[in-house]
Amino acid sequence: MKPVIALVGRPNVGKSTLFNRFTKSRDAIVADYAGLTRDRHYGDGRVGKREYIVIDTGGFEPTAETGIVKEMAKQTRQAVAEADVVIFVVDVRGGLSAQDHDIARYLRTAGKKVFLAVNKAEGMRDSPLLAEFHELGIGEPIPVSAAHGQGVRSLLDLALDDFFGDEDDSLEEADEGEHPIRLAVAGRPNVGKSTLINAWLGEERLVAFDMPGTTRDAIHVPFERNGQKFELIDTAGLRRKGKVFEAIEKFSVVKTLQAIADANVVLLLLDATQGVSDQDAHIAGYILESGRAVVLGINKWDAIDSYQRQMLERSIEARLSFLRFAPILHLSALKRQGLGPLWKALGEAYASAFKKMSTPVLTRLVHDAAQHQAPKRSGAFRPKMRYAHQGGMNPPIVVIHGNSLDHVDDSYKRYLEARIRAHFGLVGTPLRIEMRSAD
Ligand code: GDP
Ligand code: GDP
After folding, report:
1. Which of 13, 17, 19 is the best mutation target for the ligand 1 pocket, counting ligand atoms within 8 Å of the beta carbon and taking the most?
2. What ligand is nearest to the CA atom of residue 118?
3. Domain 181-354 adopts which CATH fold?
4. From the CB of 41, is ligand 1 less than 6 Å away?
5. In what residue span(s) does the EngA-type G domain sit (predicted)?
6. Average pLDDT value for residue range 78-97
7. How many whole angstroms separate alpha carbon 107 and alpha carbon 90?
8. Residue 431's closest CA among 385, 397, 382, 399?
9. What's the gap in Å between 83 CA and the centre of ligand 2?
10. What is the mean pLDDT of the chain?
11. With a 6 A CB cut-off, is 14 part of the ligand 1 pocket?
12. For 369-380, what is each residue's pLDDT tens digit?
């Protein structure tokens, strides 16, 4: 069943314009719905795989007997009764009117989910005029410009989200087959970087090829594994010699930093026989600062006994606790053990780093989180999170908008982070949360 969206609002706020946007004009007025009345417009719309029906109440012509107010009320009631979700359209340039208040009063009691679209807001996204519409008691005013198409898509996503949930979001995830995963293998000398890379390149399922324009010695190897393209980027402390890699003596921090900066995903390799050294912790710190996705590979797992393994896990826990989001993989490059799960972890870290998180889903997540545990008030300030959107990828950034958010403490941010991670299944990538306060 297609969900039905009703557009209601007083004349001239832009309902018909918005209707045309929602239906892309193509079938703005359709005649094939039974019982269609002349004064209500029905249209079919689709975003991605989501199909819906839109009702526009804008096209009616009030008669002399009924008068505009009565006719509008009747139209609105009919459309609302038929709808699954209502978009109440107001006009930021015209400002609030008595009619808006009348419609709002009716909608508050109608028992339907209502979104408040503040139209004609082109160039006014951050205008204080928008806040005035809170007065209607319909919720957060959503700025749109129907004429310019601004904010229309996110309004639609918001309206449809309850009916389709997250299922469509997965379709929009970064299609990993398209772009190569830029991968850097970092670690101090002797942890086994060249052994691992040579083991990879010798794998049957891995197809290495020379990229045009790169010299034979360049450490920049594109390859493909299980249909996933990778690009091994210039890895610090290695030299390519013909078809194999060999370690070079001098460890270079700058090279390491460049490799990390250049990568999407960093594999930080540790030597199980050595424990976690200061240098390992430093490299881990650089990776964290860079925001890159990271997987911890504990190499030479073959060379230590079970007691040493326990001690090692403890020292990782103690010294690399700030990389707790990174999956830990045990492997032996020499014996080619654990390479399959390592590939899987690298792919998952990459997918997490490029996860698309829609505004409605993020907004609902922060609202749910606040309902479960509200941010502590700080003196006279009560932090209020209004909505959230994605501000970037690799690392994923979640921007939360609201009031008095400067007072939200770190433990609350960690709580939010945990909930967002759990919902989107984010592993192997840092997640940044930014608060933006309107006051
Ligand atoms: P309705 O049918 O009463 O809901 O409103 P219409 O869709 O007919 O639009 C009323 C007027 O507002 C028209 O002149 C539109 O061109 C104009 N309008 C619609 N949307 C926008 C917008 O986003 N920005 C501006 N500046 N004007 C708009
Ligand atoms: P790199 O400097 O990080 O490139 O380290 P190398 O790949 O040159 O490895 C340093 C030493 O560790 C070599 O003697 C390797 O044979 C050894 N090595 C590498 N991987 C393993 C492993 O998984 N197990 C064991 N026991 N030794 C390894």
Report:
1. 17
2. 1
3. Rossmann fold (3.40.50)
4. no
5. 3-167, 181-354
6. 90
7. 13
8. 397
9. 66
10. 82
11. yes
12. 999 999 988 788
Amino acid at 56: D
Class of domain 359-437: alpha beta
181: nearest Cα among 224, 240, 117, 243: 224
Q: How close is the Cα of 256 to the center of ligand 2, in Å?
A: 19
What span, in angstroms and rounded, lies between the C-alpha atoms of 229 and 176?
8
- Most informative mutation of 195, 200, 240, 251 for ligand 2 (most atoms within 8 A of CB): 195
Q: Output the CA 281–ligand 2 centroid distance in Å.
A: 19
Q: How many C-beta atoms surround the C-beta of residue 126 within 10 A? A: 9
Is the pTM of the predicted complex or chain greater than 0.95?
no
CA–CA distance, 118 with 92 (Å, rounded to integer): 6
* Sequence-ordered list of residues with C-beta below 8 angstroms from that of 85, at least 6 positions apart, any chain: 3, 4, 5, 6, 112, 113, 114, 115, 159, 160, 162, 163
Query: Whose alpha carbon is nearest atom 16 of ligand 1?
Result: 147
Cis link prior to 395 (omega < 30° from 0)? yes
CATH 3.40.50.1980 fits 4-160, yes or no: no
| Separation CA 44–CA 23 (nearest Å) | 6
Ligand 2 pocket, residues with Cβ under 6 angstroms: 187, 189-195, 237, 247, 299-300, 302-303, 332-334
CA 435 to centroid of ligand 1, rounded, Å: 33
Neighbour count for residue 257 (Cβ, 10 Å): 17
The tokens describing 269, both together, are 């390799």
Distance between terminal CA atoms of the chain?
42
Binding residue positions for GTP: 9-16, 56-60, 119-122, 187-194, 234-238, 299-302
Give the integer Cα–Cα distance in Å for 123 and 126. 8
Residues 6+ positions from 348 with CB-CB distance below 8 Å = 327, 427, 428
Give residue-wise pLDDT tens across range 117-168. Answer: 999 999 887 788 888 999 999 988 999 999 988 899 889 989 998 887 654 4
**Domain residue spans of the chain:** 4-160, 181-354, 359-437
